[in-house]
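Team,

Forwarding the record for the chain on the shared tracking sheet. I've put the sequence and predicted structure together so nobody has to dig through attachments.
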Amino acid sequence: MKKSSFVAMMSGTVSGVLFALGMCMALIPEWAAFRPGLVCGCAGLLMALITLLVWRKMEHKKPIRLSGKIIFTMIAVIAGTLALGMGMCLTMVWGRMIAGTATGLVGILILICLIPLTKGIKE
């Protein structure tokens, strides 16, 4: 394993755990830790961004340039993730099985569409 991959894996894992813990702290009312959870979640997002920048630097890759395709991809990622999460909440928290399943499937389909959007279709 290359050093850059190892560093990206370790710091990516830490940032993911920070983000997940922060969201749990912020969104579980029994914990009563909204503000610390928000800070922890934002720290996880910031660390993920730093991880991306450091990994790209270690791999000697060019900086990311924003284009219409990248912005559309980011919007699709956000929409698909929110739809999947909303479907899970509808099903597990509010007991709306049919609406939750349908919403979750829409989110999964949006996320699956990211593969040809980012990699393209080749023969």
